[in-house]
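Quick one, tokens below. Sequence please?
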């Protein structure tokens, strides 16, 4: 099932890249945008209706994963004659405030992530009550309909976690350390819970919370855990930047644990090539960003609702030694 979905998404990505490559950019982690915005409007659209769409995420400062999402969103905005107002805040209350700002600005549509339904869903519902269509993506797969989302693009984190856990078990992992870079985010908790389920009785999993905004603290926390518990034979991180830090922790602690991760960036693709990271679970963030904006445009211009009320899965697929060279071509373009 995962392979067929991945093949479909991969075909779509090739088409998307052809349309939007000139407008995309992935040049490193962006600073926390708070209420800031980036406009992206295509030229040559004299006869195309113009809309303003707000994209609001829980991205942490410097996390390059979100550069890829933003690149996809920017490419779609350029194609569709859309002004894209992008903002982000990893604090759920502040993210809700950004949604309210978009409502007050009377934007044409909102694309939003939901890592904390209790804090964010009520404001999403306010947007719908104000007549603003809302597309959700990346975080919130379990409750996007209840929050008022019209569509959802992303991976089912529980399914992805179980798939990762099964692969870890097949690789012989007995004690897995699951590193969470933020507390209280439902999608991160679902990943670790899925890993534990996928491992089954073949192994055990330990969760380790780190402050994903503090690289030195992340490294020292992982290092201390690996030094203290030599039974850990596998480390799985939930984001590419954390995986890159964990490489150093494994080395400095003298651990023999193998490293695996969720999500990717160009630097991590190189580490999969070198063998420092065994594999990554890929949810295709470029597709998430692109489809979130493009689907709002389709709705605004034609009344189309992609997915027909069902989650549109963009993952999971796995990037490992068997396919990393092919994926690396897309990573160089900023689309994987």
């Amino acid at each position: 099932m995962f392979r067929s979905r991945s093949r479909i998404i991969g075909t779509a990505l090739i088409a998307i890249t052809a349309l939007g490559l000139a407008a995309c950019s992935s040049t490193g982690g962006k600073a926390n945008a708070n209420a800031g915005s980036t406009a992206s409007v295509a030229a040559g659209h004299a006869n195309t209706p113009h809309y303003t769409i707000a994209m609001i995420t829980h991205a942490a400062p410097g996390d390059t994963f979100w550069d890829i999402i933003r690149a996809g969103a920017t490419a779609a905005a350029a194609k569709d004659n859309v002004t894209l107002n992008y903002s982000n805040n990893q604090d759920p209350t502040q993210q809700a405030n950004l949604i309210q700002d978009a409502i007050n600005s009377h934007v044409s549509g909102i694309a939003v992530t939901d890592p904390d339904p209790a804090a964010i869903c009520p404001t999403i519902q306010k947007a719908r009550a104000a007549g603003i269509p809302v597309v959700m993506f990346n975080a919130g797969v379990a409750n996007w309909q209840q929050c008022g989302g019209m569509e959802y693009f992303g991976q089912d984190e529980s399914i992805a976690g179980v798939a990762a856990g099964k692969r870890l078990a097949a690789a012989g992992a007995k004690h897995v350390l699951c590193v969470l870079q933020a507390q209280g985010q439902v999608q991160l908790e679902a990943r670790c819970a899925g890993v534990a389920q996928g491992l089954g009785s073949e192994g055990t999993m330990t969760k380790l919370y780190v402050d994903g905004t503090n690289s030195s603290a992340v490294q020292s926390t992982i290092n201390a855990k690996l030094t203290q518990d030599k039974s850990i034979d596998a480390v799985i991180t939930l984001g590419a930047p954390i995986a890159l830090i964990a490489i150093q922790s494994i080395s400095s602690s003298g651990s023999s644990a193998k490293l695996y991760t969720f999500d990717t960036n160009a630097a991590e693709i190189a580490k999969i090539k070198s063998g420092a990271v065994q594999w990554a679970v890929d949810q295709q963030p470029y597709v998430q960003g692109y489809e979130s904006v493009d689907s709002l445009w389709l709705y605004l211009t034609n009344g189309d609702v992609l997915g027909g009320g069902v989650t549109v899965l963009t993952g999971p697929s796995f990037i490992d030694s068997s396919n990393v060279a092919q994926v690396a071509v897309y990573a160089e373009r900023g689309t994987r």
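Residues 58 and 200 are 31 Å apart (CA to CA). The longest helix spans residues 2-20.
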